[in-house]
Amino acid sequence: MDGSGGAAVAASVLIDGNRIVDVGDCAGPEDCAVLDCSGLVVAPGFIDLHSHLDLQVLEDRPEKIRQGVTSEVVGNCGFSPFPYCGDPHELQEFASGILGRPDGWGWSSAAAYLRAVETGSTKMHVFSLVGHGSMRIAVAGNSQQSLSAAEFDQMSGFLEDALSAGCAGFSTGLMYAPGSGAGADELEHLCRIVARTGKLYATHMRSYAEGLLPAVREQIELARTTGCRLQISHLQAAGRKNWGLQQQALDEIEAARHEGIDVEFDIYPYQCGSTLLTQWLPGWALDGGREALLERLVTPDTRSKILHDTEQSRAQLWSDITISGVGNGRNAELVGKTIDEVALDRGVPPAEAALDLLVEEDGVVNVVSFNQSEDNLRQLITHPLCSVISDGFYVKGRAHPRLYGTFPELLGKVTRDEGWMPLAESVHKITGKPAKRLGLRDRGLLKPGYFADLTIFDPASVRSHSSYEDPDREPQGIISVIKDGRVVYGQCS
Fold this sequence. Notes:
Layout: E1 12-16, E2 19-24, E3 41-44, E4 46-48, E5 69-74, H1 89-99, H2 110-120, E6 125-131, H3 132-140, H4 149-165, E7 169-173, H5 184-197, E8 200-204, H6 212-226, E9 229-232, H7 246-259, E10 263-267, E11 272-276, H8 290-297, H9 300-313, E12 321-326, H10 339-346, H11 350-360, E13 365-370, H12 374-381, E14 386-388, H13 402-417, H14 423-429, H15 432-438, E15 454-457, E16 478-483, E17 486-490
Parallel strand pairs: 4-5, 5-6, 6-7, 7-8, 8-9, 9-10, 10-14
Antiparallel strand pairs: 1-2, 3-15, 11-13, 12-13, 15-16, 16-17
Helix pairs in contact: 1-3, 3-4, 4-5, 5-6, 6-7, 10-11
C-alpha cells in the first residue's frame, strides 16, 4: 500500500542507503539483504500530524515507533518548548501540563530546539510547529491582554525566525490562556506571515462545544483573509448536548473547501479526549498564570464566581471527566476516578471538588473526558478531509491510550473489525495525506527517490491492547519499522 489511497498491489521495494530506488517487480544485487514480507502489508512509515511529545522525542522512547510511526509533528495547540526570553520558568509553568515535565527544559529559539532534535532523536523524524501561546509568554508573560506595538513586533519576529529556521508551521491554542486573549488583528497578522511561506497553520480553536460553529467560522475567515493553509486540530462536537452541531460544522468546512480555501482537519480514533482540568474554568480565571489562578481559587468571592461561570459553560457531565494525572502527586490515588466520584467521597458538589483538586495539585490536573458519540467519530474519521492523529502526551499518572495505541487501533478495530473504511484509505490518512499537509515532497509514499521510511504490519492481527485502565501496553501486529533504510523496530531478517 503505497500511501496514496490506491488499492494494494503485490510488489517488492528496493532500498539503497536511505532512499527507495524501485517499487514493483524488482530485484536487488545478489548480496542484497532481504526482508520477507509475504502475507503482510508494506506501507510508508506512519506520520503523526499532531502530538505533544516535544520533550520525549529527544529521549528515544518506544511508544511511537512500536506503533509504526516514523515521523511526528510537535508544537501543537500553541504549546512549544521555545522560545523564551531570559528565564524559562514562565514557559515551563505554561506548558508543563501538556509537555509532561515541570522543569529542566526550554530553548531560547526554534533554531536551538531543532538543533537539539537533530542531534538527539534517532528513532523519529521530528517536525515542529511554533506555538502561539509560547511566543506570547516570551513577549508579554501569561497575560491575555492586548499586546503593545513593541510586543507585537517581537512576536512577529519570533514567528519569522522560527519558520526560517525550519519549523513546519504555526499553531494556536485559543482555549488556553494566554492564547485565548488574541484578537482578530493579531491572528491575521501572524497567519499572513505563515501564508507567505506556504507552511501550515494548525489551530486548537476557541471552542469545540456550544461555541463550535463561531469557532469554525473564525478560522475559516482567517484562512480566507490571509490565504494560509488551515488545519483544524482534533475537530469534534464535545459534550452530549452539542453532538448535533457537528454536521453543520462539516458543511461549513466543505463549503469553504469548495470556495478554494485550503482547510482540512484531524481527529484521533477514540470517543474520549484528554486535556487539563483548567480548560473547564472561565478564561479570565487563568489570566496571569498558575499563581494568580491559585490565589483566585482560595479567595471566597472570586472562587464563587469561578464556580458559577464553570457550571454555566460546562459541556460535559462531571461523570464524563476522569482524573488521569496530578501535578504534585498528593492525590495520586484519585487517578482513574471521575470528578463525580471524588465529590461523592468528599461529600461536596462536583464543581467544588474540581476546584479543590486544582488547589491541592498546584493547578495541574490532567483528565480524560468523554466527548463525542460513536456516530460522530465515524463521520469524522472517514471524511475525505480528515487525517488521523494521536494527540498523545505524557502525564503524571495514566496517559490516554491514544499515546500508546492510536495507529494499531485505527488499522485493527476501526478498519478491520468495525469496517468503517478500506484499509488503503486508513493507511493514506496516516501516510500520504499528512505528508501532503506538511508539504513533504519525499515522505509519505512508497516511490523511487523517497526516503526509505516503511512500516510493515500484519493486517489480520494488528491491534492496540491499550485501555484507559491500563494504557501502557505494546500493540500487536507491527512487524518491522524501517527509518532511513535501517530497521529500528521488530524483525530485521
